[in-house]
Amino acid sequence: MNCTIRPILKLKRKLMKKIDNIDRLLIFALVLFTLMFTTTIFAQVKTIETDIYKVVYSEDYEQPLQVSYTVLCPDGEASRQGLDFRKYDGVRTSDNEDYSNNPYDKGHIAPAASFNCTREMVRETFSYLNCALQHEGLNRGPWKELERFERDLAKMWENINVVVTIHFDATEQLYTKGGASIPSGFTKRIEIKGIETWEFYFPNEDVAGRDWGDFRIPLTR
């Protein structure tokens, strides 16, 4: 082999070895970053199942992402007097500060009136796990009337199943002074098992005076 070519080949082998090491390092770094990112995401979202509802909760947003429940007590009479929302051990949630000096109510997602068989069941709905920043015009208006419709259905049929999905605007997320994310809207799906299903979308804004039927949307799968 020509003596001038040998050093070039040797240098090429060294260079290729360095490139190979760099590639391995980059792959390792990418895998490590993906693992750390995935772990962080899962740490921020927790699923908790209580005796009366199931919630998927975002510690990052400090708001529920989804709550599902079955209407159990459409005409119960247990009192809610003196009850207030409380924190849930082991989950970073919103708190009283997030609902102060703004137009947002502490909106029950699984409504207390659907579980007023006993005071203990009502108490369980007063958890920040089950609480969203809901505009007062929505919470006290068509949302409240739709909850009454659910209870009326439950007086005629068993197994009125409800799933509420809470939406957040990824392009323009708003926050309270306390740091909780303000939802952009709510989807509610009501099902009479095997008979009928309704679905509604409500923007999180002042819709006082409007009928809940105005917010019905085609069913999604």
Beta-strand fraction estimate: 25-35%
CATH T-level fold name of the largest domain: Extracellular Endonuclease, Chain A
The domain count comes to 2
CATH class of the largest domain: Alpha Beta
Strands in their spatial order, largest beta sheet:
1-2-3-6-9-10
Q: What average pLDDT do the residues reach?
A: 88
Order of helices and strands: HEEEEHEHHEEEEE
Main beta sheet strand tally, sense and closure = 6 strands, antiparallel
- The number of distinct helices, counting runs of at least 4 residues, comes to 4
Provide the CATH superfamily of the largest domain: Extracellular Endonuclease, subunit A
Flag low-confidence runs.
25-42
Specify the CATH architecture of the largest domain: 3-Layer(aba) Sandwich
Secondary structure: number of strands: 10
User: Helix amount, in percent?
Assistant: 25-40%
What gap, in angstroms, lies between the N and C termini? 70 Å
Overall geometry comes to globular
Which class of secondary structure composition applies to the elements?
Answer: alpha+beta
**Backbone CA Rg:** 26 Å
Would you kindly provide a written description of the structure presented here, covering whatever features stand out?
The chain is an alpha+beta fold. It folds into 2 domains: 1-45; 50-215, Extracellular Endonuclease, Chain A. It has helices at 5-44, 119-125, 136-139, 142-154; strands at 45-49, 53-58, 63-70, 104-108, 131-135, 160-167, 174-175, 181-182, 185-192, 196-203. Strand 7 and strand 8 (181-182) form a beta hairpin. The radius of gyration is 26 Å and the shape is globular.
